[in-house]
């Protein structure tokens, strides 16, 4: 009986499962100065993790390093400690590096972006305005598509009337007609009008 060997894991190729992938802090809401990142381990082996940041002086990461048991998850608490207006809109990055517990090399990494915004209310207002714009755009597109496809265009109707009139005119050679001779059409002209009308 052959023992099943675990495939060799290549450095940096292991998918890392983190939620959320974006952190938004609001300066006017004290409860939003703290966010939670959840790191999932769907694998059959334990992982160790490390959280790195592009601006560590702005954040406090509770348990910046640790371990995750197989098929478990851990919550990583991140606090924004510098909520000044000069930091509004600045995008910072966190990197979660994971490795097998017995090894040093990083098997996978995932970046999470963090942004400080002035007000949750302003953000909600902007999101609501964006939703209204999208809804109006969809409505206009739907209406214009409906108006185009609701019936034949004016040109099509006009062309149909002209073809019907052409078919009703007398054919060349009819002498007993009250219609002037220049309005008499050839058989070929009538065939073209019938073909167009059929289309």
Automatic annotation (TrEMBL):
<keyword id="KW-0812">Transmembrane</keyword>
<feature type="transmembrane region" description="Helical">
    <location>
        <begin position="154"/>
        <end position="173"/>
    </location>
</feature>
<protein>
    <recommendedName>
        <fullName>Motile sperm domain-containing protein 1</fullName>
    </recommendedName>
</protein>
<keyword id="KW-0256">Endoplasmic reticulum</keyword>
<dbReference type="InterPro" id="IPR000535">
    <property type="entry name" value="MSP_dom"/>
</dbReference>
<keyword id="KW-0472">Membrane</keyword>
<dbReference type="InterPro" id="IPR008962">
    <property type="entry name" value="PapD-like_sf"/>
</dbReference>
<feature type="domain" description="MSP">
    <location>
        <begin position="15"/>
        <end position="142"/>
    </location>
</feature>
<dbReference type="InterPro" id="IPR039283">
    <property type="entry name" value="MOSPD1/3"/>
</dbReference>
<keyword id="KW-1133">Transmembrane helix</keyword>
<dbReference type="InterPro" id="IPR013783">
    <property type="entry name" value="Ig-like_fold"/>
</dbReference>
<comment type="function">
    <text>Plays a role in differentiation and/or proliferation of mesenchymal stem cells. Proposed to be involved in epithelial-to-mesenchymal transition (EMT). However, another study suggests that it is not required for EMT or stem cell self-renewal and acts during later stages of differentiation.</text>
</comment>
<keyword id="KW-0333">Golgi apparatus</keyword>
<dbReference type="GO" id="GO:0005789">
    <property type="term" value="C:endoplasmic reticulum membrane"/>
</dbReference>
<dbReference type="GO" id="GO:0000139">
    <property type="term" value="C:Golgi membrane"/>
</dbReference>
<dbReference type="Pfam" id="PF00635">
    <property type="entry name" value="Motile_Sperm"/>
</dbReference>
């Amino acid at each position: 009986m052959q023992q099943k060997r675990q495939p060799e894991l290549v450095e940096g190729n292991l998918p890392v499962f983190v939620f959320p992938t974006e952190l938004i802090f609001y300066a006017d809401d004290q409860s939003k100065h703290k966010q939670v990142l959840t790191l999932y381990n769907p694998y059959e082996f334990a992982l160790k993790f490390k959280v790195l940041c592009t601006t560590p002086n702005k954040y406090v990461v509770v348990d910046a390093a640790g371990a995750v048991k197989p098929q478990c998850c851990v919550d990583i608490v991140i606090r924004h400690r510098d909520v000044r207006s000069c930091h509004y809109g600045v995008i910072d990055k966190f990197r979660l590096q994971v490795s097998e517990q017995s090894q040093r090399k990083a098997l996978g990494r995932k970046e999470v972006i963090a942004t400080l915004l002035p007000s949750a209310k302003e953000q909600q207002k902007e999101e609501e305005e964006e939703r209204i714009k999208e809804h109006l755009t969809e409505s206009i597109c739907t209406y214009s598509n409906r108006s185009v496809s609701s019936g034949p265009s004016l040109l099509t109707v006009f062309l149909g009337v002209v073809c019907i009139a052409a078919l009703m005119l007398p054919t060349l050679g009819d002498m007993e007609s009250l219609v002037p001779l220049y309005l008499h059409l050839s058989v070929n002209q009538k065939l073209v009008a019938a073909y167009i009308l059929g289309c």
